[in-house]
Amino acid sequence: MKVHIDIETFSEANLKTEGLYRYAQHPSTDLSVLCWAEDDGPVNVWMPWKNLPQKIFNELELEVEGALLQGHLIPQVLQLTVEKAKIAAHNAQFERVVLNNSAGIRHSVPHIRIENTICTMAKAAVHGLPAALEHAAKALGTFPKRESGANEMRYFAKPRKDGTRPTPYDETDRFITLVRYCIDDVKAERDLDKHIPDLTEREQSIYFLDQKINERGIGVDIESVENAMAIRDEYKEKLAELCHTQTGYKPTQTGALAEWIRANGYPQLKNLQAPTVDEVVKDSRCPDNIKKLLRLFSTYNMKAVTKFDAMLRAVCDDGRLHGMLQYYGAGPGRWSSRIVQLQNMMRPVIKDADNAIEELRERNLGWLRWLYHGTDVMKVLASCTRGMLVAGEGKDLMAYDFAQIESRIQAWLAGAEWKLKFFREGKIKIYNATGSLMFGIKPEEVVDSGEDQLYTAAKIGELACGYQGWAVAIEKFARQMGIKLNMDPADIAGKWREANSEQVQLWYDLTETAMYAVKHPGEAYAIPNKKIMFKVEGRWLYMRLPSGRRIAYLDPEVQMGDRGEEVTYMGIDTYSRKWTRVSAYGGKWLQNACEGIGRDLLVSGLMNMEDKGYKTTLTVHDEGVFEVPEGFGSDEEAMRLMTVPLEWADGLPVKCEGWRGKRYRK
Questions:
Q1: What confidence tens digit (pLDDT) does each residue in 480-489 have?
Q2: Is the N or the C terminus of the chain less surrounded, counting Cβ atoms within 10 Å?
Q3: Rounded to the nearest 5°, which phi and psi values hold at 320?
Q4: Domains of the chain with bracketed CATH
Q5: What letter would DSSP give residue 155?
Q6: CA Rg, the chain, in Å?
Q7: DSSP at 218
């Protein structure tokens, strides 16, 4: 039996900033209403209150076909259902974690096991749909999520301005609207569930692993975080004083500060957004004093050091961050992050971040500036963010990352044996190998010398052009790497394509094969080497990866675009972040395939590690982070487990690199 449930809650904690686990563990967190339906049966309502106003029953009895129950403790019929049934919900993690903590304990709700849950949000993500129930239902045209009631949901979810909790006794009409809202959520998620194919057994097990990783969490060095914040805040005060002395305004007064800059030497300034500031400081027309001011402004507003605040807001009573990972948060199946955003921590610019963290104990800004006199204090602090994540008492962290995995997969899919040979032998860097073909010289001659920049050109070409990037992509990567190119970006891109003709052909093969599949629904089409296949089934175009896993694209069509005929589908636009019709091309298909295959390799490694007692505590892109008892396991065993040969990946040269320690690092 499958039971769809939905809950509405109240808490003094802030779910968005503190995260689910801290929210669920807060003593104030409570249930306002719980609705459930067994399979296709009627929706039932339990209101965990006593002696509710009769008006609630009078209004709801006419529209609630199932049970309409009240009382402080969970009704027996629902208790038996929770114990025996599969519990389905949209973002089932929320229902499970809340009901397993203070709110559920207060009302005697039975413990819900991870393996006993079904998540319709996970199903939606795997099938290329928006995560939110409202948007997923709209995309598929299934039972719509009720729009009226959203205000009541937010109203009952937090204290009123006077600090009191809204109740059905003093807000009867609004509470009735809230119950209707909850009822419709059950109907919406149940209908969505019916119209989305179930996860495969393999994918369901990966979802369960995700839930276990979030449940385990990772430790935080709270004392060091507080030390870093103290130095950061002192430094920001000094920066604010300097800014005010020069302009009369603080860095937080962005509108007034922008006007001052326009009036005092740079009238072209559009705004003070980070990309704009980055461009302005490179503009030769900008006066030096304005550039200096803008660098001060950027330093003051550095985002990387705000992770310290996020860590303290989200860390739970056990000193760990829980629930920071989002299953299938990126299209090809990779994890994304929530709250602290652990997927995008700044790469350290100092080599001894662990030592720097120890020096933070002094809380001495002057001492830190003297120690790292060539590096801005904010960058020193940002370099320490990874190190704030630590192993528990008597434990170690072990982390293993796949080296240059996307380049290796690109070459493998394209059948570029010359490139695979260099990866397998490992004697020469891939950038030397690529550069030798780009410039017609020996690999050892590919170096940066004077105006040539051969090694840099090969490296940027390899990083920027693999997914059909051209001159604009070259320029973007050069800016990100802080490199001023002396070579024509278009020339670099052209030479890279000449050297990588197999990959260029793969772009065309993927484009053509996807188009055949869309034009002939129900028929499977494969690229020439048969590693990637496309097929339309129902409303989805599926790209089948070598592992057998399929990436889904909703409502595919062939339309005329800038490149002629192209496949389009419904998805999230990369730039606007809106749900709309988006176009695909060879480089995009290849990027999805490579990231998807990388995810499949990582998951295989995680599963192998789990089986041998290495407990996953975090994933960051293609890296797995594990927490183990001191003295447990070895690097040799871990790297072997992460790279166990897979039949479907025959010929793919996979290399793993890793470390062991007390603090997370890059």
A1: 887 888 889 9
A2: N
A3: -130, 155
A4: 2-198 (3.30.420.10), 222-390 (no CATH), 398-404+595-661 (3.30.70.370), 417-499 (no CATH)
A5: H
A6: 28
A7: E
